[in-house]
Amino acid sequence: MEFATLKLSTRDNMTQTKQNLPSTVTDSPQASRRRFFGKAATAAVAVPLAGIPMIAAAQAPIVFKMQGSWGANEIFSEMAQQYVTRVNEMSGGRLKIEYLPAGAVVKPFEIIDAVSKGVLDGGHHVSGYWYGKSKVASLFGTGPVSGATPEIGLSWIHAGGGQQLWDKLVAKMNLNVVGFFSFPMPSQPLGWFKQAPPKKAADLKGFKYRTIGLAADLMQELGMAVAQLPGGEIVPAMQRGVIDAFEFNNPTADMRFGAQDVSKYYSMGSFHQAQEFFEIIFNKDKYNALPADLKAILKYAAEAASTASTALAHDNYSKDLQELIVKHKVQVSRTTTDVYKGQLAAWDKVTAKLEKEVDMFKEVNDSFKAWSRRVGFYHFTNEANYKLAYEYVQKTKLPV
């Protein structure tokens, strides 16, 4: 009992002494150390090991090199950049995509092989550009018309089984890629002609025509001689007489590469490529190595860019069509009903042949037709007559 009293008395005396001294004097090295690590533990989320403070360091971003199939000045490169910008901003600097224009590393039609082999980390193009590996690829954007609008076509990718069929196809082809789809492109024009475009489907026979994908099979069925060329080679081919008619995609892209300098006849509307979208691909190994949130950003940025690209297209395509008419004196007409009907009949022959000859062609085409049948019924039954309203409100007659 006396020993216990002595300890208590000594501690009390020490406490009283400490109260009369500055803290810098009273703190022993052991006490200061305990207090320091106590504060570190309070702030402790950034401390990986108990009692060891961590010095924060900026982590270098993961960098992906992505090449497009589009020239540096093409509007499609602007749309590719819309996707890249969204990924880079949403990732908060952890993932950075560097976009390269067509030809920077490989040719436009070689992108999927380059991405599969890891020569590129990513690519921005359309499925029709690897049609030479499998004609089924073209069904994911440049396939037969079954009544689907571009929006209905893209909704098949997202909700009708199209994505799963694309995944199955690339696996069958041993392509080491993952892919997402973006931007329901407005129907592509029949294109540019050196003379007034034919009004009858039978009169298309003999034209030397540029297109890509399954549209090549379609136009060959109609009697055209088809050359599959990337955008940058079209005008030189027209100048040399290699082709005498062509389509690319839209008024803006066509005008930027000089279509109006080699032709003054532009036929709008066609069934050869009526529901196309961008295909955005990544090397599968590089993609799988990413954390889940960055994978999600790559996927959902395609949906975000789809809206941005649609707005960019509507703004630019409409302005540039007017410039083609007013400034460049291009004669714009609508593709005739006879040509449309001829295209539909030709599609029947092309698809019947390919469904027998090409693995997965019937499976994918049947899926798309079933989706178009159900969704198209709703769409066309419900859709308002916008053309009637346009002509009434704008006091303008549209080309027929």
Structure description:
The chain has 400 residues and is α/β, with parallel strands linked by helices. It is built from 16 helices and eleven strands. The strands form two sheets. The protein has a six-stranded mixed sheet with strand order 7-6-8-5-9-11, with helices on one face. The radius of gyration is 31 Å and the shape is globular. The protein starts with a helix and ends in a 6-residue tail after the last helix.
* Contiguous helical run count: 16
Shape by Cα distribution: globular
Question: What order do the helices and strands follow?
Answer: HHHEHEHEHHEEEHEHEHHEEHHEHHH
Global structural class: alpha/beta
Strand order of the largest sheet: 7-6-8-5-9-11
- Rg (C-alpha, Å): 31 Å
Give the end-to-end Cα distance, rounded to a whole number of Å: 113 Å
Helix content: 40-55%
List low-pLDDT spans.
1-48
The main pleated sheet reads as: 6 strands, mixed
Beta-strand level of the residues, as a percent range? 5-15%
The tally of beta strands, per DSSP, is 11
Mean pLDDT reading: 88
Short structural description:
By secondary structure, this protein is of the alpha/beta class. It has helices at residues 2-19, 23-26, 29-42, 75-90, 111-117, 150-159, 162-172, 214-221, 234-240, 251-256, 259-262, 284-288, 292-326, 337-357, 361-382, 386-394; strands spanning 62-68, 95-100, 122-125, 177-182, 191-193, 208-210, 225-227, 245-246, 265-268, 278-283, 331-334. 49% of the residues lie in helices and 12% in strands.
Keywords summarizing the entry:
400 residues, alpha/beta, 5-stranded mixed β-sheet, disordered N terminus
